[in-house]
Amino acid sequence: MSKSGYTCVRLLFCWLNIFLWLSACAILGLGIWLRVTNDGFATLMPQYGYLSADIFAIGIGAVAFTLAFLGCCGSWFHNRCMLVTYFILVIILLIAEIICGTTGFVFRDGLSHTLKEELKNGLLHHYNTTSKGPYNLSVIWDHIQLEFRCCGVESYEDWYLIDAWPTERWVPDTCCLPAVREKGCGKSDADNWYEGGCYGPIHAWFLNRLATLGIVGLIVAFLQLYGLISSMLLFCTIKHRRLTRKYKSYRS
């Protein structure tokens, strides 16, 4: 690779990783702040606490922070060890993404059934009307039922005899039709409640946004591919110039 080509690839790769590193710091900081100030986020499936928003942000931020740091420092300081570590980690990340995507597609029906059962289990055992905080499970379900005009996972019967009211066939007040919604309406007749569950509307909401998710996935894949190619080009060029004792002429 010529000196100008090497310098161009190196600087572009370095500044791209600086931008990603700053973004990762912001995401990681946001996740930590949410975790500390709000004592964690509730999830629709409390038995899988690692799927909460704050843990998700911390995980993504930590992975992106590590990769961007290795890529930036490796290119800026001509460090072959960092560059090859960056290359290996991106390869592992790509393989993990492909495995997860393929598994999700092949077993999508089974995953759908499992998701429904876990959501019902969350309602049955973890819903608590006395819990405090803006991100507890009851607040999340209230928001979903108001937004999608639904009740329960598959129907309002999912709320019957849950641990929060083990002897009653009640539903939250957010299950009530707008015309009759008032405090205590969830303890009235079922004719006043939404009949449909929330799983169908939520699933349709995600399907309608598959195009956006696809575009984001393509952008991420392109950045990962560019990182792989650039890191290996820089690694090979540095190694070649060191072996031929001409490495100094490539420093900018």
UniProtKB/TrEMBL annotation:
<dbReference type="InterPro" id="IPR018499">
    <property type="entry name" value="Tetraspanin/Peripherin"/>
</dbReference>
<keyword id="KW-1133">Transmembrane helix</keyword>
<feature type="transmembrane region" description="Helical">
    <location>
        <begin position="12"/>
        <end position="35"/>
    </location>
</feature>
<protein>
    <recommendedName>
        <fullName>Tetraspanin</fullName>
    </recommendedName>
</protein>
<dbReference type="InterPro" id="IPR008952">
    <property type="entry name" value="Tetraspanin_EC2_sf"/>
</dbReference>
<dbReference type="InterPro" id="IPR000301">
    <property type="entry name" value="Tetraspanin_animals"/>
</dbReference>
<dbReference type="Pfam" id="PF00335">
    <property type="entry name" value="Tetraspanin"/>
</dbReference>
<feature type="transmembrane region" description="Helical">
    <location>
        <begin position="55"/>
        <end position="77"/>
    </location>
</feature>
<keyword id="KW-0812">Transmembrane</keyword>
<comment type="similarity">
    <text>Belongs to the tetraspanin (TM4SF) family.</text>
</comment>
<feature type="transmembrane region" description="Helical">
    <location>
        <begin position="215"/>
        <end position="238"/>
    </location>
</feature>
<feature type="transmembrane region" description="Helical">
    <location>
        <begin position="84"/>
        <end position="107"/>
    </location>
</feature>
<dbReference type="GO" id="GO:0005886">
    <property type="term" value="C:plasma membrane"/>
</dbReference>
<keyword id="KW-0472">Membrane</keyword>
